[in-house]
Specification:
Low-confidence stretches of chain A: 286-295, 297-323, 334-339
Largest sheet of chain A: 4 strands, parallel
Mean pLDDT of chain A: 87
Radius of gyration of chain B: 24 Å
Distance between the termini of chain A: 41 Å
Strand order of the largest sheet of chain A: 2-1-3-4
Largest sheet of chain B: 4 strands, parallel
Shape of chain B: globular
Mean pLDDT of chain B: 75
Distance between the termini of chain B: 50 Å
Largest interface: A-B, 73 and 70 residues
Structural class of chain B: alpha/beta
Shape of chain A: globular
Strand content of chain B: 5-15%
Radius of gyration of chain A: 22 Å
Number of helices of chain A: 24
Strand content of chain A: 5-15%
Number of strands of chain B: 11
Number of helices of chain B: 21
Helix content of chain B: 40-55%
Oligomer: heterodimer
Strand order of the largest sheet of chain B: 2-1-3-4
Chain lengths: 506, 551
């Protein structure tokens, strides 16, 4: 184990010393080989972790390999669009997270600063822009950005387009503020026209069959993602180092691929096993009684005060809202191992041993809003050590309705416009309230990433709204990428104070 | 003192004196606080230049721009520390003057503004607020989308009016006592002497409730799988008076734009006569005062300035002595041609309504020959302009501005042609889709024949607004870059001063791109970040001084 860790650290240092696109391509080619993956597999702490690593490496390898045209896409853009056009999506904002994880952010941020990106701007975009300027990312042929949640994305992506001389292949999807019949139509037309333009530039015709296939896969991924989210409502005993915030790449970039389906299917079965294990724990019977007797505070509040506000942003209502009859039956009863087509890559299956000996009724459940620091930090282990568990993350919320494969552009428009971060803050709050209710959390933590006007601008409303419902909320100021702009000591102190408040609420 | 006298006071330029008791051409910006105006109770606040004032005026309100003049105090608690200081100051203004506004219109111009809207809706529930969705791209579809949103805005204003009428009496600001026809109502506003309206809270509550009920209804409808969305019903929205008022309102706003363009031309050519700070003060007044009166006063001021310039020219030059057109044109005697040692600069920025900032420019020896800010050219300089032949049946664009004929071509083109041109102008999305081939997701009944005239007016406004001098929020930054580079060339600019409010992502992220482009043409630029109402003047002055020395 120590040797593998050392290899990983060596690799990281080599990357830091050899910062260029070709070197990254070579590294990806090597670690993408099955024998290497098998050796590397022993470092995976769970099957979910294994699949996450494998599909991520595969996706990046493809983007760097120049096998297919690459498109830069913003995080909330429905990347099914690119998969259907057989263009490989590459997400600079997510990759900026990787730069922090690999210890490269200092260099990329420095590069951005030298090009007049002021330090007041979001570090995700500054780091991504720095990486583009340093030629670390694959060369895109197209760039698509949706103006959901983030002004910075559309500007930095445009600068990228200028750098690569592809301004004519830069597409801004103008997502309307309100979701209504007209606005969906307006957005759908943008998808349709952009698809036509991209196909024209690639000398091919729009393949609607391919769109259908991709959208079916997207629906299948959605199905398993919902099942994962369902099981997490009861789950407290997770594989070691499991963190829902690590799945941001497959959740967004791989929707519409078989890889995403495989990952979420495996995750579901793995978490199901953990739930069984949890149910067999010695404290479980006590916990069950306690949990059953506990009134859901949000339901109680709803009954008394808030009959109107619990609107239709939940999953079930979106299913109803869907205007076509989909008869997809995703097989849920197959043997778990049948889904693991990478059985030969073993994992170091570990449970968080501390949790096994803990009475679940003493665990406080948290909802995590926005993102997390992607550099090495102790926030989550600190929470777990103190019997706090992040049971769900806002970023993993399945917010969109099932898509209609026969009407791909309209479906993608609906997915994009349905994002809770689009439009008024009410959309996000309603989604958060649903999560608070469904996961029966004791408190929420909003990680206020430096420079994120969209998320942080709504922090006061979110906090006040949750406070009214007796859900304590911690606004945790920090930086997801730049560890120099985020004091861990201060963060842990604030978390400690927050935990004390939650403890008192027993 | 009645209102008219007050207005004369603040634009009584000839009586304004500086510290040396010398007469200046400066307007007295502090003479009138519009919030103290008893006759101007029907004010609708607006913030972004993408809000067409015409619609507010046509609906019987006085448009009033929120300029964030209040120092941040209570507003700080609503926003994070690293947040747009202009938005915070504007929130402070709303907290202080909310009862004096009938409503407020936001645009989805940036992340900050979207959250400002949310905060206003949540913490100032008595103030009716509306979010105008302005597209970032210019295509035939986006123009349609924007038109639709303008109708929703009219609907919003109608509702405030309806609720107001339910609660109170005669209160269309532009209504005349003599019940004359609508056309003359708008022209006779100086006779208007209205009583104060009911407090906004009543109709605000009811308006917000109406909207909320509608939202809830939509949500419930969704649950029932009946996708009934916000869809403006044109026949409900348009009244005969609104249609007529809109034409009159267009005359007023177009006149204002022309006058401001005329002012700008004097400013560019005879900067010392107008003064930099004074110029921006007048621009400030142009958005916080009732438009009709402002136009009257500004016209007087401009005539006075012209008279002064001519008198001075007659003393020192051959102006007026020869019969040739050239020597009689005052712009041929622009001071700019005389002093070649004074650097010509361009100022680019967002909302720069800072008296001290402009004072610094004035104190240093430079000519501002182009200003591209939210409170200057982006407000009144349009690439497309209406001609003065206003009538609902013949309402065409004239791409020639009445004032600045160097900026535009002389072709008069039809609305349809403009729409097509606008669609073609965008490089951001493919606009080549044939309508016959598109998947018609909805049946669009916007061009109902009965509403043709009104539809054309709305279409023209939408086209004009989306083709105006663009904000950095728009998708195609090349249009902005081209506009800047063209003006650098045309005005012989020596250097560019880029000034941004702190934490304005759209503006701040434009600078890296602009800088690259400026370096290509060998132009220097200075990047300054300022904090609204709290600028570090010493530092700015030093940096600006150093920059001017370099260029």
């Amino acid at each position: 184990m120590a040797i593998v860790e050392k290899i990983k650290e060596d690799l990281k240092q080599k990357l830091q010393r050899n910062l260029d696109r070709n070197y990254i391509t070579r590294v990806l080619n090597i670690i993408g080989l099955k024998p290497i993956l098998s050796a590397y597999g022993s470092t995976f702490t769970s099957k979910s972790d294994k699949f996450l690593n494998i599909v991520s490496i595969k996706s990046l390898k493809k983007a760097y390999s120049s096998q297919a045209p690459v498109a830069f896409g913003s995080l909330f853009f429905p990347h099914e669009f690119f998969h259907a056009l057989e263009v490989t999506p590459f997400l600079p904002e997510v990759m900026a997270g990787f730069t922090a994880g690999l210890g490269l952010a200092d260099q990329t941020l420095k590069e951005a600063s030298s090009r007049w990106y002021t330090p007041d701007l979001c570090t995700f975009h500054r780091s991504a822009s720095g990486a583009v300027e340093m030629d670390l990312f694959p060369i895109p042929k197209f760039i698509a950005v949706a103006n959901v949640a983030c002004d910075a994305a559309q500007k930095t992506f445009y600068i990228d387009a200028k750098k690569y001389g592809i301004e004519k292949n830069y597409y801004l999807f103008d997502v309307p503020f309100e979701k209504n019949e007209y606005s969906i139509s307006y957005l759908a037309k943008q998808f349709e026209e952009t698809a036509e333009d991209i196909c024209k530039k690639l000398n091919k015709k729009i393949d609607l069959d391919k769109f259908e296939e991709v959208i079916n896969l997207s629906n299948e991924f959605r199905h398993w993602a919902i099942k994962v989210n369902e099981i997490r409502k009861k789950l407290l005993l997770y594989p070691k180092n499991f963190n829902g915030l690590n799945f941001i790449l497959p959740f967004h970039a791989l929707a519409g691929t078989k890889d995403a389906v495989d990952l979420y299917k495996n995750m579901y079965f793995e978490l199901k096993e953990y739930l069984t294990k949890q149910n067999n724990l010695k404290y479980n019977s006590i916990d069950k009684n306690n949990r059953n007797n506990k009134n859901n505070r949000y339901d109680k509040y709803n009954k008394n005060n808030d009959k109107d506000s619990n609107n239709n942003l939940g999953l079930s209502s979106y299913n109803i809202n869907n205007n076509f009859n989909n008869n997809n039956n995703f097989n849920e009863n197959d043997d778990y191992n049948n889904y693991d087509n990478l059985n030969d890559i073993t994992v170091n299956n570990e449970t968080n041993s501390d949790l096994e000996n803990i009475n679940p009724k003493n665990i406080k459940k948290l909802l995590w809003l926005h993102l997390k620091p992607y550099y090495k930090n102790n926030i989550f282990s600190f929470l777990e050590q103190n019997n706090f568990r992040v049971v769900f993350e806002e970023i993993n919320y399945v917010y969109w309705p099932e898509l209609n494969p026969k009407r791909p552009f309209e479906s993608l428009a609906k997915k994009l416009i349905s994002h809770p971060l689009n439009g008024s803050i009410d959309n996000r709050i309603n989604a958060i309230l649903n999560m608070v209710n469904e996961y029966n959390v004791d408190g929420t933590i909003l990680f206020a990433h430096w420079g994120c006007r969209h998320s942080n601008g709504g922090a006061r409303i979110i906090k006040d709204t949750l406070q009214q419902r007796n859900i304590p909320t911690l606004i945790l100021d920090g930086d997801c990428l730049n560890k120099n702009n985020s004091s861990e000591g201060q963060i842990l102190t604030r978390i400690q104070g927050f935990m004390e408040i939650l403890e008192k609420k027993k | 003192m009645d209102r008219k006298e007050k207005l004369l006071t603040f634009l009584e330029f000839y009586s304004t004196q500086n510290t040396q008791n010398k007469k200046t051409n400066a307007v007295n910006i502090n003479a009138v606080n519009i919030f103290d105006e008893p006759n101007l109770t029907k004010k609708i606040g607006w913030i972004c230049t993408y809000v067409p004032e015409e619609l507010i005026i046509a609906s019987g309100f006085v448009p009033f721009r929120i300029t964030g003049k209040e120092k941040i105090s209570k507003a700080e608690s609503f926003f994070p520390i690293n947040y747009c200081p202009f938005i915070k100051s504007s929130m402070e203004e709303l907290l202080k003057f909310k009862s004096k506004l009938s409503g407020i219109i936001f645009t989805n111009s940036c992340d900050g503004m979207r959250r400002f809207y949310d905060i206003c809706k949540k913490y100032l529930p008595d103030l009716p607020s509306f979010m105008l969705d302005v597209p970032r791209v210019v295509t035939k579809h986006s123009i349609k989308h924007y038109e639709n949103n303008l109708l929703l805005l009219i609907d919003f204003l109608n509702k405030i009016n309806t609720n107001n009428n339910d609660n109170n009496t005669n209160d269309n600001y532009y209504d005349n006592n003599d019940n004359s026809n609508n056309s003359s109502k708008l022209n006779n506003t100086n006779n208007a002497n209205k009583t104060s309206n009911a407090k906004d809270a009543n109709y605000a509550n009811s308006t917000n409730n109406t909207r909320n009920t509608k939202d809830t209804k939509d949500i419930n409808d969704n649950k029932k799988n009946n996708e009934t969305y916000l869809k403006p019903n044109l026949n409900e929205i348009i009244t005969k008076s609104l249609n007529e008022n809109l034409i009159e309102a267009l005359k007023i706003t177009e006149n204002k734009r022309n006058l401001l363009n005329r002012l700008r031309k004097y400013f560019i050519s005879f900067q010392s006569e107008i003064g930099i700070k004074n110029y921006f003060n007048i621009l400030h007044l142009s958005v916080v005062l009732e438009s009709y009166f402002f136009n009257v006063e500004l016209e007087k001021y401009l005539n006075y300035i012209e008279y002064n310039i001519k008198s001075n020219l007659q003393k020192s030059t051959s102006f007026g002595q020869s019969k040739t057109d050239k020597s009689n044109n005052i712009f041929e005697h622009s001071i700019l041609d005389k002093d070649k040692n004074v650097p010509n600069i361009m100022v680019i920025g967002n909302f720069l309504d800072e008296e001290r900032l402009w004072e610094i420019f004035e104190e240093l020896n430079c000519n501002i020959l182009y200003e591209d800010c939210c409170n200057s050219t982006r407000y009144f300089k349009f690439n497309l302009n209406f001609n003065n032949n206003f009538n609902s049946n013949n309402y065409n664009f004239n791409s020639k501005s009445n004032i600045d004929n160097t900026d535009n071509t002389n072709n008069t083109i039809t609305t349809a042609a403009i729409t097509t041109a606008a669609a073609a102008a965008t490089a951001t999305a493919a606009t080549t889709t044939n309508n016959n081939n598109t998947n018609d997701y909805i049946n669009d009944n916007f061009n109902d024949k009965t509403n043709d005239n009104f539809s054309i007016l709305i279409n023209n406004i939408a086209v004009r607004q989306l083709n105006k001098s663009p904000c950095m929020r728009m998708a195609n930054l090349d249009i902005k870059i081209k506009e800047i580079l063209d003006n650098i060339k045309k005005n012989n600019i020596d250097g560019v001063v880029f000034v941004s409010q702190k934490f304005c992502d759209n503006t701040l992220l434009f600078y890296p791109l602009l800088r690259q482009e400026l370096l290509k043409i060998n132009k220097q630029s200075l990047f300054l970040e300022i904090e609204h109402n709290n600028i570090s003047s010493g530092q700015i002055k030093t940096r600006l001084q150093a920059f001017l020395e370099i260029i």
